[in-house]
C-alpha cells in the first residue's frame, strides 16, 4: 500500500475518533441514540464558572478603589479581599474545565459541519466566517470570539489563583488589577455571545432529547 494511502487512512481514522469524542462531549452516544443526554452538556456547565469568575474579577477590581471611597459598611473588610479573590479564582478555574472541554466538542462539530457543507474547502469556511457571509459563518466567528475570550479570562484567573497560593494575602500587582477590571466586562460579553449562540442561532437546540422529538413532530 502506498505511503500516501496509508497516511490518508490514518488521518481519516483519527478524524473519526475525534468526531465520536466530540459527539460524546455534546452529550450524544454515537450509534446509541437512546443513551444520549436529553440536552446538550455545554450550556449546563457554564453557570458556575461565570458566577465564580465574575466574583473573583469583581473582588480584585475593588482593590482599585481608594481607601477613602471604599464602602466598608456594605462590603467585606478590605483586608479579606485577597483571600476571597483567591478562593473564588480557584473555584472559577476548576469549574471552567468542564465548560472548556465540552465547548471544544461543540466548536469542533460546528466547524466540521460547515467544512462538509462547503465542499470540504477550508478557504470557503474561513471566508464565510471572517466575512460572516451566512449563518454558519456567523456562528463560527461568534464561537471563536466566545471561546477565545473565555480562555483568556480563565487564564487570568489561573494566574490570580497561582499568585495567591505563593503570596497569600498579598495584593495583586497594579497591572494585574487593571487586567482583572477589564476581564470582568469581557467575561460578561463572552457570556452574552454564548447566550446568542443558543437563543438567536439555536446552536445545539433540537439536536437531541426532547427538543429533537419536538422538531421531528413538526416536520
TrEMBL record:
Entry superkingdom: Eukaryota
Domain DUF2231, residue spans: 38-206
UniProt cross-references to Pfam families, sorted A to Z: DUF2231
InterPro entries (alphabetical): DUF2231_TM
Keywords: Membrane, Transmembrane, Transmembrane helix
Annotated signal sequence range: none
Coiled-coil segments on the chain, per record: none
Transmembrane parts of this sequence: 50-71, 83-105, 177-199
Protein name in the entry: DUF2231 domain-containing protein
Organismal lineage: Eukaryota, Fungi, Dikarya, Basidiomycota, Agaricomycotina
Amino acid at each position: 500500500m502506498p505511503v500516501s494511502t496509508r497516511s490518508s487512512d490514518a488521518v481519516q481514522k483519527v478524524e473519526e475518533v475525534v468526531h465520536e469524542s466530540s459527539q460524546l462531549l455534546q452529550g450524544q452516544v454515537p450509534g446509541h441514540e437512546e443513551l444520549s443526554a436529553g440536552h446538550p452538556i455545554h450550556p449546563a456547565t457554564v453557570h458556575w464558572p461565570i458566577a465564580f469568575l465574575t466574583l473573583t474579577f469583581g473582588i480584585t477590581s475593588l482593590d482599585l478603589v481608594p481607601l477613602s471611597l471604599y464602602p466598608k459598611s456594605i462590603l467585606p473588610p478590605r483586608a479579606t479581599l485577597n483571600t476571597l479573590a483567591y478562593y473564588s479564582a480557584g473555584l472559577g478555574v476548576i469549574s471552567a474545565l468542564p465548560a472548556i472541554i465540552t465547548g471544544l466538542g461543540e466548536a469542533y462539530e460546528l466547524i466540521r459541519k460547515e467544512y462538509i457543507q462547503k465542499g470540504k474547502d477550508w478557504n470557503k469556511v474561513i471566508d464565510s466566517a471572517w466575512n460572516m457571509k451566512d449563518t454558519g459563518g456567523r456562528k463560527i466567528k461568534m464561537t471563536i470570539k466566545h471561546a477565545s475570550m473565555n480562555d483568556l479570562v480563565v487564564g487570568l484567573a489561573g494566574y490570580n489563583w497561582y499568585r495567591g497560593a505563593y503570596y497569600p494575602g498579598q495584593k495583586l500587582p497594579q497591572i494585574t488589577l487593571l487586567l482583572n477590571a477589564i476581564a470582568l466586562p469581557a467575561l460578561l460579553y463572552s457570556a452574552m455571545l454564548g447566550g446568542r449562540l443558543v437563543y438567536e442561532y439555536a446552536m445545539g437546540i433540537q439536536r437531541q432529547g426532547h427538543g429533537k422529538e419536538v422538531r421531528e413532530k413538526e416536520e
